[in-house]
Design brief:
Elements lengths: L11 H11 L4 E8 L2 H16 L12 E8 L3 H19 L1 E11 L3 E10 L6 E4 L5 E5 L7 E10 L3
Antiparallel strand pairs: 1-7, 2-4, 3-4, 5-7, 6-7
Helix pairs in contact: 2-3
Organism: Maribacter confluentis
Family: Belongs to the archease family.
Keywords: Calcium, Metal-binding, tRNA processing
């Protein structure tokens, strides 16, 4: 007996469940408060590094790897997202956790920086990427820390 195909279109409730599965993927979040855009990028990098490997940041530690990164975007929120995603790509490609950076140029639409990192074989959390709506960035010019961000990462639960 052959199976019968009743309809080639997926049922409405099935399509709805597929989109809800996206929200069930494992996620990790960090919060960053900074007094300037430059401090926001540096603290975001440092917090992401400490999420990849706890207590990794040590300013006196030697550097195994130096990479140059240049990213452009329409606004600072998208710039931060694209920058951190590019750093994550480099992290997985070179098995390096980038803890610090020297910013050569930073505007609302562009960052040009050197990343300094250390090689690692095993990560505490294997962050994959920042999803489309994974960053909330608030710029309150009246505050002591005018840049507040909340960053959510997709990650692999099995290392």
């Amino acid at each position: 007996m052959e199976p019968q195909v009743v309809s080639k279109k997926p049922r409405r409730h099935f399509r709805k469940n597929i989109s809800s599965l996206e929200s069930l993927k494992p996620k990790i979040g960090i919060k960053v408060e900074a007094s300037s855009l430059q401090a926001l990028f540096k603290k975001s990098l440092k917090n992401m590094a400490n999420t990849l490997k706890s207590k990794i940041y040590d300013s006196t530690r030697h550097t195994d790897c130096i990479m140059h990164v240049e990213v452009e975007a329409l606004n600072s929120k998208n710039l931060l997202k694209k920058f951190l995603n590019q750093v994550l790509e480099l992290t997985h490609e070179h098995h390096t956790i980038f803890c610090t950076m020297y910013i050569e140029e930073l505007t609302e639409n562009k960052i040009n920086a050197q990343l300094f990192g250390n090689w690692f074989d095993v990560f505490d959390n294997k962050l994959k990427s920042i999803p489309e709506n994974g960053i909330v960035l608030i710029n309150d010019k009246e505050s002591l820390h005018p840049f507040n961000s909340s960053i959510v990462f997709n990650y692999e639960s099995e290392l």
